[in-house]
């Protein structure tokens, strides 16, 4: 899971009978230049002051519309930014459910932080703004909600014990634990929860971090080895702690599954299904890395210190179990001392991932309460599963390290395209051959399927246009430009035809009775085929569109 990203530096300025909200794209943003460009294309600067003069709902809505356009761009991630450019000339009212919820919350947080100590007029404006934002979030929630099915008769005794242990040790939870179809345990709201409510609050003393290992008998051995990262030390600690009956965290370890079923445990048959896919590469690379790490680190430890590292607890299988535990259950947490640590957080680790999560912002221990809070960015009704975002991950990453594919269309499911091109050097006019990485995703995400767009990313199309004919004035309805369009669409069609051939025909297994890993492998290939097929359809429609325009252009030329 990923830690909370630093929030953009928003601030609020007070003016007599009005209220101004200051939105700023921080210069520290990794994509500052690209976002600045996009803001400017839409008529905004990197610092904007939005003035609210009345609490009338219509005026508040109008102001919020403008603030939201800016906040959306500030909160774009790398993939959203890459694909946003094809919409640069359009009024975009939506990038992704995640972006929408994060952007609305960033404005809401700013407004809420400013509620104290203002005039009645300002309070009315703020209150109305808050209502409008809450309505918009609720609206967005209705459209994107994915309901989980609770398995009613599954025993949850161990999970209940863990909850009781947590509550006895200062945890506050408005979530219960239940089994949900297709996802193991999940966290279910015990009451209606609103935006801003704390669903779960865990004291820092219940978080498993490297601080704990420092107190263990193995630390003096591990700290001497320069090749040991704190994550590896924690991993080796958890392999033994799992079997420690006196562990402070025994009740937590008792809830962990014996098998994690991530891509790292895929068997031969599943890997065969994945042959020639990016997921195959990702799993093989991760496994080879872990095997090499095991061979280098673990046997020397149990050979030299069998009393501290009993060989029967430090087998390859048990090492792999611990890797899967840490990959699929850890969170990066920022502590009040400013350190970012990889941690296991009992109880919070029951929260499943969604493309449209309720909790989007977490990962920082509150220094006043010394607790880790999970606050809602969108409402969650009583009985509904409460979801987290583990990060903006593709299906291949989620399968490899977590062992599942989320429900819905994942905007991070991109296909990387490595293109070879000659980049002209402006200084000495020499040409350097280079590889540029672009990406493509399901073209159903795009709103622009017109000529010169075709549902494909503008960054990629512009790159290909330049590569084919650097001197040409592109995107005009003139013969040369249209012929260039035909060439680049044809090039893309060939690339994706080849990709589709490699994916082969639909795997016709009896899916209900197939092993978990083969089922996931087949599901991944289905996703890939759907993406490639949408791209091919867009190439074909694009070619037809360009051909029609070329015919018209030539007919006009003939007429003179
Ligand atoms: C942090 S744990 C969440 C709790 C977990 N369901 C359990 O029973 O322990 C992460 C694991 O939950 C499962 N998971 C999380 N989100 C999921 C989802 N949307 N669909 C299916 N499985 C999911 C995956 O097995 C993942 O490795």
TrEMBL record:
What is the top-level taxon of the source organism?
Answer: Eukaryota
Per UniProt, the keywords (alphabetical) are: Methyltransferase, S-adenosyl-L-methionine, Transferase
Q: Which residues form the SET domain?
A: 173-391
* One function term, GO molecular function aspect: protein-lysine N-methyltransferase activity
Q: Name one GO biological process term.
A: methylation
Record-linked Pfam families: Rubis-subs-bind (PF09273), SET (PF00856)
Which InterPro entries does the UniProt entry name for this protein? Rubisco_LSMT_subst-bd (IPR015353), Rubisco_LSMT_subst-bd_sf (IPR036464), SET_dom (IPR001214), SET_dom_sf (IPR046341), SETD3_SETD6_MTase (IPR050600)
> PANTHER family under this entry?
N-METHYLTRANSFERASE DOMAIN AND SET DOMAIN CONTAINING PROTEIN-RELATED, UNCHARACTERIZED PUTATIVE METHYLTRANSFERASE
Q: What name does UniProt use for this protein? A: Rubisco LSMT methyltransferase
Record the organism: Trema orientale (Charcoal tree)
Output the lineage of the source organism: Eukaryota, Viridiplantae, Streptophyta, Embryophyta, Tracheophyta
